[in-house]
Amino acid sequence: PRKKRAKIVSACGECRRKKTKCNGEHPCRSCTKSGAACTYPSATQGQDDKRNIPSKAALEAIELRLKTIEDMLYAILQSQQT
């Protein structure tokens, strides 16, 4: 049977950016080969990324764009019915 790879909890920043396999060492194999700085995100950094809440102005802009698109779609549907 094949030997299973050990699953690491978190990939380093460079492997995440390049979307490559990280072996979890410090520095990891990929960063050692490429000579890149191998840094791992702290536990709080990962949580902050997940809680990236858009600003009120951004939400209002999206709602305005959605309303504009809905109005255009409604106008197209109305013109096709006549």
Task: Pick out its properties.
56% helix; CD2-Gal4; 2 domains; 4 helices; Zn(2)-C6 fungal-type domain-containing protein; mainly alpha; 82 residues; Zn2Cys6_DnaBD
Mind explaining what this structure looks like?
The chain has 82 residues and is mainly alpha-helical. It folds into 2 domains: 7-51, CD2-Gal4 (Irregular); 53-82. Helices cover 56% and strands 0% of the residues. It has 4 helices and no strands. The chain has helices at 13-18, 29-34, 43-50, 56-81.
CATH architecture of the largest domain: Irregular
Low-confidence stretches: none
Shape: elongated
Average pLDDT confidence is: 85
Sketch the major β-sheet.
none
Kindly estimate the percentage of residues that lie in beta strands according to DSSP.
under 5%
State the separation between the terminal residues, measured CA to CA.
69 Å
Order of helices and strands, N to C?
A: HHHH
CATH names the topology of the largest domain as: CD2-Gal4
The number of distinct structural domains comes to 2
CATH C-level class of the largest domain is Few Secondary Structures
